[in-house]
Specification:
Structural class: alpha+beta
Largest sheet: 4 strands, antiparallel
Number of strands: 4
Family: Belongs to the MGMT family.
Pfam family, one: Methyltransf_1N
Radius of gyration: 16 Å
Number of helices: 5
Organism: Manacus vitellinus (golden-collared manakin)
CATH superfamily of the largest domain: Methylated DNA-protein cysteine methyltransferase domain
Keywords: DNA damage, Methyltransferase, Transferase
InterPro entries: MethylDNA_cys_MeTrfase_DNA-bd, MethylDNA_cys_MeTrfase_DNAb, MethylG_MeTrfase_N, MGMT_N_sf, WH-like_DNA-bd_sf
Helix content: 25-40%
Length: 140
């Protein structure tokens, strides 16, 4: 079935972050392509919603809370639920889905892993280049 997708924009320490999703889950998080903010806009250390705050579905509310904690109170992240994901790429049975779910479930927050290490975790030690391609398509 078709999702009724909602959008919100947050002002954060890294600039505007666009999030989108539906009642079922988060579809996408878009980071700014440039570090420059529009003229007259200022970065917000508190990660505040500046557009789309009305009628946000629960997954977007959870994402906003998670991002706010990430920037302002990282110690509280373990207490927050990770929003459900509902991007079509994460619904298909594919290597990309396997890599992204492995990253979410098996790599600890703040930990760095190489594409080779992620390929090993995802069950195909020779797929480092495919992991790179999967990460390039990562909607979140």
């Amino acid at each position: 079935s078709m999702c009724e997708e909602k959008h919100a924009v947050l002002l954060s320490p890294v600039g505007k972050i666009e999030i989108s999703g539906c009642e079922t889950g988060l579809h996408e998080i878009k980071l700014p392509k440039t570090s420059m903010l529009p003229s007259g806009a200022e970065a917000s250390a508190a990660c505040e919603v500046c557009e789309g705050a009305e009628e946000m579905p629960e997954p977007l509310e959870q994402c906003t809370a998670w991002l706010r904690a990430y920037f302002c109170e990282p110690a509280t992240l373990a207490n927050l639920p990770v929003p459900a994901f509902h991007h079509p790429l994460l619904q298909q049975d594919s290597f990309t889905r396997q890599v992204l779910w492995t990253l979410l479930n098996d790599v600890k927050f703040g930990e760095a892993v190489s594409y080779k290490e992620l390929a090993d975790l995802a069950g195909n030690s020779r797929a480092a280049r495919a992991v790179g391609a999967a990460m390039r398509r990562n909607p979140v």
